Amino acid sequence: MQSGSQEVVLMMLLFTGMVLSVLFRKLTVLGALTGGLLALLIYLGAGFTGISLMAAFFLLGTLATGHRMQVKQVFKAAEKAGGRRDAIQVLSNAGMPALFGLLAFSFPQHSATFRLLLATSFSSATADTLSSELGTVYGKKFYNIITFRPDRRGLDGVVSIEGSFLGLLGSIIMALIYSFGFGSGLFLLWIIIGGTIGNCADSLLGATLQRRRLLSNSGVNLLNTIIAALAALLLSALEKMES
To answer: Would the pLDDT of 79 be above 60?
Structure first.
């Protein structure tokens, strides 16, 4: 597909996605516009593979959030289920991938590294969403991630084995999507490990700073994508040092 045709297809996809997300009350108007802008930056650095990562995150997150909403509301864990995501929430999940997309475009000699960080950020965001939204529904026993003592489901920093597994599955899905566009290699493992580390960091931040109202949910989401990217960067650097 020629460059001009690709841009036309991209704009059509983004416009359609933005309109549908507003019509189906998944995003506010400003949230949809923010998502469209971030998607453009992601496309600059990672092409349609980056757009696919963002689309998969949004689709999986939307399905997981809406799944058995009544059960989550009973346990007061439907923080995002009842309303549309706004611009801040969109930025907290996709802001770092968009930044890495811009950096990959601006510094093509390091584009592979920035694309890896982009994918790992989405890996963490997806793992966090699936583990929290679906873990609340399918988890059997719930533990405080710091004390490992039983705790109430739905609270910040509370995890389950089932939720953790679903989060890991989300990271694997992101790595597989990335492999379709950029091939396979040990870096796929960094996407999965980084996403899992970011997800664990999200729970730790939730059990400490968020419970004390020192960080909002959006702040925690942003930090987990940053931590995941840093973990992938470190793993990648260690790999290069050993080779």
So the answer is: no
